User: Which sequence fits this backbone?
C-alpha cells in the first residue's frame, strides 16, 4: 500500500499538534513553515519586556520533530492551494511557487495583526506576533530610555518615557504589567539623568473593561492591580489617530514615541487560497470534523478557522488550536487505517489566565475565578508545562526564579540600532526624528 502524503502548513500550536499526533501513522508527514521555529506566542510579551530571550520561547521545528522519522520539515512560505491538483505552492529562498502534492492537507497558518481598517497605524504602532516583533519592541522600549538619558532638555523626557499600549486584552494587560515592573524595579538604578520610575505607561481600549473575555470580577481585579503598578488605564474610547508624535484618544493627544499595538487579529489568507466560505473576520468556516465543505481531505484548524460551539465561535487561543490539531490527526489516522473516524470536534475549555505584574495573575476555569499569587503560581506551572522542550522548561523556570528574586532580566540588548548617519552633527534636530520614524 502506498504511503499517504499529509501536508501540514504551519508549525505553530495547531500544526505541531497534528504532526506529533501522526507519529505512529503509516504516512509521509510534510510540515511546511515560513519560519524555522515553533513560537510560544503567550510569552512574546516577556521577550518584548526583556524577561526572556528569543531562544527561550522559540524552538527549531526540525529539532522538535527530529525523532519522528515519518516527518519532513520544509522551510518555505505557502502562497496558494490548488484543490483540483491537490497541491500547495511553496516559495523558498531560491525558488518560487514549487508545487507539493498532498493526499490530506491541514492548514494551520494562524493569524496576523488587524488594525481594524486603519493600516496606516501600523507604521507607528507595531504589533506583537513574531520574535522579530518582540525584539523590535524590546529595542524600541530600551532605546527610549537611552534617548531620554542622552537628552539634555528635561521637557522632552516625558514624551520619550511615555509608553502606550493599544488594546487591553490579555497581551496588552500582560505587557503593561511587565513594563511597569521593568521601569520600577529592573531599570530604576541604571540611569543618572532620568528616573525610569517616572515613565508613564498608558493602556487604552474602546471596551468598557480590561480583559473582556474574563468574568467581570477578574477584569476589575486586573485593572486595580495595573493601577497599583502605576499603569494609566483608559477605557471606553477608541484611538482616533496614531502618528509619529503619539496618539489621539477621546479628543486628547497623548505624546509618546513608543506605541505598541496589542489589539485585533486577522486570520491568514487560507480562505482566499481555498476560495472557501469565511466568517466576517476572514476565518475559514469549517465543518464538524474540521474539514472544508466539499473537501474531506482539507482540514483548517486553529486561529485561521471558524468553528461554532454552543452557538458561539471558538476563541483564537492555543488550546483550541492544539485540541483541533489532535482531532484532525485522529480523523486522518482513522481514514488511512480504514476505520470509522470520529464525527465531530468538541472543544474542552480549560479556562483563561493572564499575569498582571510580578506574582499576580487572574484565572478563570469553569466556575473558579481567582486572582493573586496562587493564580500566578498556577500560571507559571501551566506555561512551563506547554513549552516545547524540557530544556526550555528548565531554562525559563530558572530565569523566572532569578528575575523574581533579583529583578534582573534575561535580555536587555538593543539589537536594531539605526546605522549612524554620517552627516549628522551634534545638536542638529535630525537626531530625534530618526527614532520617531522607526
Ligand atoms: C502576543 C500573543 C499572546 C498570546 N497569549 C495567549 C495565551 O496566553 N493563551 C492562549 O491560549 N493563547 C494565546 N495567544 C493565542 C495563541 O498563540 C494562538 O491562538 C495560537 O498560536 C494559534 O495556533 P495556530 O496553530 O492556529 O497558529 P500559530 O501558532 O500562530 O502558528 C501559525 C504558523 O503558521 C506559519 N505560517 C503562517 N503563514 C504561513 C505560510 N503562508 N506559509 C508557511 N507557514 C506559515 C507561521 O509561521 C506559524 O508558525 C496569544 C497570541 C499572541 C500573538
Assistant:
Amino acid at each position: 500500500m502506498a504511503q499517504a502524503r499529509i501536508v501540514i502548513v504551519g508549525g505553530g500550536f495547531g500544526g505541531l499538534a497534528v504532526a506529533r499526533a501522526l507519529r505512529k501513522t503509516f504516512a509521509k508527514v510534510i510540515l511546511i513553515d515560513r519560519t524555522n521555529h515553533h513560537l510560544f506566542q503567550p510569552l512574546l510579551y516577556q521577550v518584548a519586556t526583556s524577561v526572556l530571550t528569543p531562544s527561550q520561547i522559540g524552538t527549531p521545528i526540525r529539532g522538535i520533530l527530529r525523532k519522528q522519522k515519518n516527518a519532513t520539515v520544509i522551510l518555505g512560505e505557502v502562497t496558494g492551494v490548488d484543490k483540483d491538483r491537490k497541491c500547495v505552492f511553496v516559495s523558498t529562498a531560491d525558488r518560487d511557487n514549487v508545487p507539493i502534492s498532498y493526499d490530506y492537507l491541514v492548514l494551520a497558518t494562524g493569524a496576523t495583526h488587524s488594525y481594524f481598517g486603519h493600516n496606516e497605524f501600523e507604521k507607528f504602532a507595531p504589533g506583537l506576533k513574531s520574535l522579530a516583533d518582540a525584539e523590535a519592541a524590546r529595542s524600541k522600549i530600551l532605546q527610549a530610555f537611552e534617548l531620554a538619558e542622552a537628552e539634555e532638555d528635561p521637557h522632552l523626557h516625558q514624551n520619550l518615557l511615555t509608553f502606550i499600549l493599544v488594546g487591553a486584552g490579555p497581551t496588552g494587560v500582560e505587557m503593561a504589567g511587565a513594563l511597569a515592573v521593568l521601569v520600577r524595579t529592573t531599570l530604576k538604578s541604571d540611569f543618572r539623568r532620568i528616573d525610569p520610575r517616572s515613565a508613564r505607561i498608558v493602556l487604552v481600549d474602546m471596551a468598557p473593561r480590561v480583559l473582556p473575555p474574563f468574568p467581570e470580577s477578574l477584569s476589575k481585579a486586573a485593572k486595580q492591580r495595573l493601577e497599583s503598578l502605576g499603569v494609566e488605564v483608559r477605557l471606553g474610547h477608541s484611538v482616533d489617530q496614531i502618528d509619529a508624535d503619539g496618539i489621539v484618544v477621546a479628543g486628547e493627544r497623548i505624546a509618546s514615541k513608543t506605541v505598541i499595538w496589542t489589539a485585533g487579529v486577522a486570520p491568514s489568507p487560507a480562505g482566499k487560497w481555498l476560495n472557501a466560505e469565511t466568517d466576517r473576520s476572514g476565518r475559514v468556516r469549517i465543518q464538524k470534523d474540521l474539514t472544508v465543505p466539499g473537501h474531506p481531505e482539507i482540514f483548517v484548524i486553529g486561529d485561521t478557522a471558524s468553528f461554532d460551539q454552543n452557538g458561539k465561535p471558538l476563541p483564537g487561543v492555543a488550546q483550541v488550536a492544539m485540541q483541533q490539531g489532535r482531532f484532525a490527526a485522529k480523523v486522518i489516522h482513522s481514514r488511512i487505517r480504514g476505520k470509522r473516524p470520529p464525527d465531530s470536534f468538541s472543544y474542552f475549555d480549560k479556562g483563561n489566565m493572564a499575569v498582571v505584574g510580578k506574582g499576580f495573575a487572574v484565572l478563570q476555569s469553569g466556575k473558579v475565578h481567582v486572582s493573586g499569587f496562587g493564580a500566578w503560581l498556577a500560571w507559571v506551572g501551566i506555561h512551563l508545562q506547554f513549552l516545547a522542550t524540557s530544556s526550555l522548561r528548565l531554562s525559563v523556570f530558572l530565569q523566572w526564579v532569578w528575575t523574581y528574586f533579583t529583578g534582573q532580566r534575561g535580555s536587555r540588548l538593543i539589537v536594531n540600532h539605526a546605522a549612524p548617519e554620517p552627516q549628522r552633527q551634534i545638536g542638529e534636530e535630525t537626531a530625534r526624528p530618526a527614532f520617531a520614524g522607526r
Observations:
- Residues 235 and 293 are 41 Å apart (CA to CA).
- Residues 419-438 have pLDDT under 50 and may be disordered.
- DSSP finds twelve helices and 27 strands in the chain.
